[in-house]
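User: I'm putting together a teaching handout on how sequence relates to shape, and I'd like one worked example. Could you take Pentatricopeptide repeat-containing At3g05240 from Olea europaea subsp. europaea, show the sequence you're using, and then write out its predicted structure as tokens right after it?

Assistant: Happy to. First the sequence, then the structure tokens directly below it.
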Amino acid sequence: MLKSSWRAYSRLSSNSRQLTEYFLSTLPLCRRIQDLKTLKSLLIVHGLITHQPLIKQFIDHCCHLSFLELALSTFKIIEKPSLPLQNLLTRSLCDNRLFDHVLFVYQKCRGSGCLSDNYTYPFVLKACSALVHVNFGKTIHSAILRTGFEENVVIQTALIDFYSNVGGIVNARELIDRITHPDLVAWNALISGYSFNGFDREVFKVFQEIRNMDFKPNVSTLASVIPVCLHFGVHIGYSLHGFAFKCGYSTNESLVPAFISLYGNSGELLAARNIFESLMTKNVAVWNAMISAYSRNQKSYCAVELFQRMLLDDPRPNIVTFVSVIPSCENHGSIFLLESFHACVIKSGFERHISVVTALLSVYAKLQHVNSAEYLFKTTTPRNLLSWNSMVSAYVSNGLWDAGLIAFRQMQMAGFNPDSISIISILSLCSEKGAALPGKSAHAFSLKHGNDVNLNASNALLAFYCDCRELAYSCKIFMRMIEKNLVSWNTMISGCVDNGEAEQAMAFFRQMRQEGFHFDMITLISILPSCNECENLALGLTVHGYAVKTALTADISLANALISMYINCGELDAGCLLFEYMPNKTVISWNALMTGYRYHDLQSDIIFLFTRMVEENQKPNYVTLLNVLPACCSLLQGKSVHAYAFRTGIALKTPLLTSLMIMYARFEDVSSCLMLFHMGEKRNISVWNAVITAHLRSNNARTAFSFFLELLRREIEPDVVTILNLISTCLQLNNQHLTDSILAYLFHKSFDKDVAISNALIDLYAKCGSLSSARMLFDALPQKDTFSWTVMINGYGVHGDGEAALELFSQMRTRGFKPDKITYMSILSSCSHAGLVEQGKTIFSSMIQEGILPGNEHCACMVDLLGRTGNLNEAYELIQNLPQKPSANILESLLGACLSHGDYGVGEEIGSLLLQMKPEDSTPYVILYNVYAAAGKWTDASRVRLEMEQKQIRKIAGFSTFDCA
């Protein structure tokens, strides 16, 4: 018929009426876009494009056939569109979600003088809402007020819906309060807005409000209320489900998926499945809701089984189905299953749909098939921001940092502005890579584009600066955050602990409690290490009590953290008891206990625990061996651990390799150490540090220095440990010229700014005899710590300058530094070497007053000081009043002093104690013999000599050596 119509056209005259009738009769016959384009051309040629009824019918026909681009291009030609035409096109474009074009049509009509009516504004407001064009929507609101349509109920409802969807929920509430008799549609729009914007309590308030007005909630009302139930507990969901049943909506096809999702998200999978199975006919939305519920609850096998059953049933999977079921492959751990789903996607014709592609790409990456993810990404067009974010995340999650940074830059070059998800991915990448500058650039970008107000992005920024050791920045961002959640607090607490700021971590913990936040397991695990550092057992006990009260102690990770806390706070029995009562110990549990034993130098307990671990068929990992190796008391034990690692296939990662090297160095097996060195990664500075340390332990400083020169030749950058080893090398070689050269190198490389290195240099110059250089370095230190003062005090003490040591000790306390056990050891030793008895006594007393329990080494200093100055009775009284048993070295020191000062009475008492303590050692016999001989008590001297002969104890002969080097 269309062909005959075209033939009839050739016989037409140029009569306008005849042409109009022809076009009106031909238009319904045109079903193809090509025919309509031809007809449009004829309309233009004959000047009928301004014929409003004809053009309206033409555009209406195009919209009916979904040829919206043709309808829009025809509309653009019209100079003065009519109101009916405007309403027709805005409705069609809105129905097809072409919201940008809706606003274009409205603006063109407004510009040409065409007015809008109560049919136009609801569609334009819907477009503004979908595009989140807040200002444009407010302009429409102003136009409505000017044209007098503000009382129209449909327009009022559209305005409420607009403000609700763009975050202006206060405006929405004000609007509904102005309506004299709002209908249920208006209330539903408000409830939907509250639900969409997260005002959960207001949702229920309005729901109760409309029930009090005798409105009967409909399906739309319940569809907005159901998702909110999850935040108030599943019991609210049960009540709402009962209400829906009572109203006759329980089997409504819109509400059933919502109820399944509600129960699924609450973990009530059985209830969700019962609803699902109770339906005689199931639409695709119901299948999708049930599959998604299983996938969200990590029930991957159930999700896959249901998907397979769906394929055998009537409904065909849609995009939502695939987006719901594809993530289950991650928990399933099967690349074959994912590839099968991928094939189903292609068969169903969704392989170009961006949300499905993004889901596939994400799971390929999580299953470590980055090449497949990359291929999928590159072959998919067009790409959107979501697909770019997924690709960046894929690189980051698989440790491909450089590729992730390149993808991030390419995304920006492609014209995509990174959103909060992009910022989170790039910050995670920069944290792992230690790239502070790109991370700070991402922060600047987020500030410029307003992404920093996003809570998740702010939390990522906190974690990034904590990882980059810039805690001050993290604190500033945290204090400026308007909204904080549990993740924000946990990030700051763990960040403070990781950066050695235990006191700050505890301050955040207390503040968190004051602001009413409930701790979760992560909070407790994060705060426990700060109890170790501050030796705050009281806080640790509080945390443990809270965990018991909230039933969190069943978690293995928390139990392991509690074991570490008790062990490191010195409560070994509590830590061991907690370990023994654990029903399911993991390798981390064993490692936690071993690490604690290592902290307290309980080497034999570590070996026993390792043996028990193997006997109980636990599988030690490389962290276990890192704890065991320093505890080995013989080369044979160390080699056995090495053999165990080789036999069980534990990879010799760099930390384990270097630990083995240090173990061999301890037992002077330098050849084995060198063999491991040649096996290691030569670009890793830790391996070089280990081999240098090994030679230093063997007193082979020249070879150690040659290794340092070799690493410089290979252009490997030394770290702080390398430099500390280098300083030890100079100390062994005792070469002033080399020391000065090393100092120049350190200044050149800016290592002098490190406090530990500066302290080591002060110690080096002091021990090399250059006290003036040591003092100059000490005075130049911009930031001193307790150890800086200790090292300088010790330097004066070694050289017998007790007065200078005392003066420095006094300055230290005046400037607010609190001396520790090592400081007291150094100052007491200085007093001993200088014979400053009264000053030594005063310092020893002040040490006890400050709550520092004197150890054997402090008592040894005091005994040596009193012994040197002849105060032997006082020294003996000190030994008798010690809280712990005196060591053999203390007794030998006092016995030697008795011999020097001729105090034979005290000497005899001390000698008897020594013989009881070391009956097989020749030293106490020889000194006691000399004491008796000096006193002329030859009978007692002969008795000592005879006892030595009877026990076959012989004095080790002395010998001299000469170094040819």
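A couple of points you could highlight for students: The chain has a mean pLDDT of 79. Residues 79 and 447 are 44 Å apart (CA to CA).
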